[in-house]
Amino acid sequence: MVKHIKLVGIDKTFHTKTGDVTALKNIELDIESGEFLSVVGPSGCGKSTIMRIIAGLESPSAGTVQINEQELTGIADGAAIVFQKDVLLAWRSVLDNVLLPLDLKGITWFDRGNHITNRKKAIDLLESVGLKGFEDKYPHELSGGMRQRVSICRALIQDPKLLLMDEPFGALDALTREQMMYDLLKLSNKYKFTTVFITHSIEEAVFLSDRVVVMSERPGTILKELPIELVRPRDNKTRSNPVFNHKVHEIRDIFQSQGILAET
Amino acid sequence: MNSKAEANRMISTKDRQMKSWKIPKSFWAAVTLIGLVVMWELLTVVLAIPAYILPTPTDIGVRLFQETSMLWGHTWTTLTEVLLGFGLSLAIGIPIAITIVYSKYLANSIYPIIIGIQCLPMVSIAPILVIWFGYGLITKVILACLISFFPVVINAVNGFNSLDKEMHDLGRSLGISERKIFFYFRLPNALPHLFAGFKVGITLAVVGAIVGEFVASERGLGYLQLTANARLDTELVFVTIVVLAILGISLFLVVHVLERILMPWYHANKAGGGQ
Ligand SMILES: Nc1ncnc2c1ncn2[C@@H]1O[C@H](COP(=O)(O)OP(=O)(O)OP(=O)(O)O)[C@@H](O)[C@H]1O
Ligand SMILES: [Mg+2]
Predict the structure, then answer these.
(1) Is pLDDT of B8 > 70?
(2) Among A88, A187, B15, B112, which is most buried by a count of CB atoms within 10 Å?
(3) Domain span at A67
C-alpha cells in the first residue's frame, strides 16, 4: 500500500499566558492510502491537535507532515474535516450547506455550468444518509444526528482523499451513534478515502478501524498501534467476534497500566 | 433505518403545526392599549382635568388631523436629521468595527476608548456642537450620529467576533481567503448582533435629533414641542409626542422587517418565552 500521510517527529507546544503547554511529543505515524485509522486517548492528550496539524490548521513546533511524500505547508489539499460540533451555517438550507465547499471553490461563472451536477451529487449524498426530502429545510429544523449527517455530506461532496473526523459522534445518543457508524462505514467503503477518526470510545475505534493508535496523557505520545484484523464489511456480528472483544480489552489494559483508567 | 423513521416523524409534525391557528400576539397588545386610552379619556372627563394639564385622547386626535400638513413639514425635518445621522453612524461605525476586529492594535487601543466614551451622556455635548456648527441641519445630524454610533459599533464588534473557532477553521480548511471568510461566515453570522445594534441605534438617533432641536432649531418636532410648551398649548405638545411615537415605532419596524427579510432562519431558531 501507498503511504498517504507521514508524521515525522512531531512536537507541539502552545505558548499561553500561564506558561507553555506541551500537547504532543515526538509523534511518528504513517497512514496508508485508504486506511481507516482511529486515535483514542484521554481527554486533553492532543488528539484534536494531531488532527489540526494534519489538516494544516496548526503548524507543528518541530517535525514535519508529509502528504503523498510532499512536505505540508499551509492548508492540506484534498482533506475534509468533520468537527465535533456540526458547524452548519444557520442561514443556508441543508442543500446549500452541503454545496458550500463547491460554492466557495467555484470562483468563475464557468463553474456555474456544473451547478446542476453539483446539486444532483449533493442530493444523492443526502439520500445515502437518509435525508431525502430535507434539502430545503434549515439546520434548526433538524435533530442533532441529522445535522451531523449533513456535515458529513458537506465533507464528502469535495471528494476528499482524506477525511478527518474529530469526535464526530461525541454529542449524539447511543442509538444514533451506532447508526452513524454504519453510515460512515458504508460511505468509506464506497468512496475509499483515507480516514483519521478521533474518538473517546474504545469500542467505536475498534469497530470502525483498520488500525487504532492509543495515546498517553499529556504530553501526548503514541503508546501503541494496534492493527484490527476484523473482516469487512463490519456489522452487528462483529461485536460478538472474540477478536473484537480481545482488542477492546487490550486497549483498556493499556489505559489501566498507565493509570488513566483506575478501577478503585 | 432509524433516520428514515425520524424523517417521517418530523414531516408529519410539521403538517400538524400548519393546521392549528393562533390569535396573533399583537392582538393582545392592541386590546390593552385601547383599554388604556379609553381609561385616560374617562378619567379626564370624570375628574374634569383642565385641557392645559391633560387633554383627552379625542382632543389630541382631532388636533392631529387638523394640523396634519403643518405636522408633516416638521416631521420631515426631523426624519431627515435622523436618517442622515443614523446613516452616517453606519457609514463610519461598520468600517470601524471591521477594522477593530481585524486589528489587534485597534482592538486594544481604540475599542476600550469607544466603550468608555459610550458611558458619557452624549446629549451633554449638544451645546458645544451648537457653538461649532451653528443652528443648521449639521448640528442635529452630528448629534443623532454620535448618540447612535456607539451601540452600532459595539454590537457590530461583538457580532463579528462571535464567529466560532470551529466555523472559522471550516473556512480555513476549505482553503479560502480571510476576505471570503468574512463575507460567507463572519458577516451573516454577525447579522443578529448588527440588527440588535441598529434597533437601539435608530431609536437613539431620534433622541439625538430631538435634543438637537431643543437646543438649536427653528424647525422640526422638537422645536414644535418646545414652542407649544412655551405657549402652554399642552394639546399640541401631546400631538407632537404622538407623532414622535409614531415616527420612532415606524423606524424601529422598518429595521425589524428588514431583519426578518434578511434572516428568516433566525427567529424560528429561538425558544421564546416557553409557552
Ligand atoms: N490553541 C491552544 N492554545 C493553548 N493550548 C491549547 C490550544 N489547543 C490545545 N491546547 C492544549 O493542548 C492540549 C491538547 O489539546 P487537544 O484539544 O488536542 O486535546 P484532545 O485530546 O483533543 O482533548 P479532548 O479529547 O478533550 O477533545 C490541551 O491541554 C489543551 O489545553
Ligand atoms: Mg479534542
Answers:
(1) no
(2) A88
(3) 1-78+162-264
Distance from CA of A11 to the nearest CA of B (A): 21
Q: Are residues A91 and A124 in the same domain?
A: yes
Enumerate helices (H) and strands (E) in chain A, giving the number of each.
7, 10
User: What is the C-alpha separation between B173 and A160, in angstroms, rounded?
Assistant: 12
Pocket test for ligand 1, best of A13, A21, A59, A85 (most atoms within 8 A of CB): A21
What pairs with residue A32 in β-bridges?
A3
- Ligand 1 pocket, residues with Cβ under 6 angstroms: A 14, 16, 21, 23, 41, 43-49, 218
CA distance readout (Å), B90 to B83, B197, B212: 10, 10, 19
Residues with pLDDT less than 70, chain A: 1, 106-114
**Residue whose CA is at the smallest distance from ligand 1 atom 8:** A49
Mark yes or no for CB contact A145/B3 under 8 Å.
yes
**Please, what is the average pLDDT of chain B?**
89
Return d(Cα A42, Cα A78) in angstroms, integer. 29
| Domain C-terminal end among A106, A140, A159 | A159
Contact A22, A46 (CB under 8 A): no
Measured between CB atoms, which of B4, B169, B174 is closest to A130? B4
Gyration radius of chain B over CA positions: 24
Q: Are residues A168 and A240 in the same domain?
A: yes
Are residues A155 and A168 located together in one domain of the fold?
A: no
| Alpha-carbon distance B44 to nearest alpha carbon in chain A (angstroms) | 51
Q: What is the DSSP string of B181-248?
A: HIIIIIHHHHHHHHHHHHHHHHHHHHHHHHHHHHHS-SSSHHHHHHHHHHTT-HHHHHHHHHHHHHHH
Q: Which of A129, A159, A189 is the last residue of a domain?
A: A159
Q: What CATH number is attached to the domain comprising A15? A: 3.40.50.300
Please state the ipTM of this predicted complex. 0.91
Domain boundaries of chain B, sorted by first residue: 77-266
pLDDT tens, A223-237?
999 999 999 889 989
Amino acid at residue number B82: V
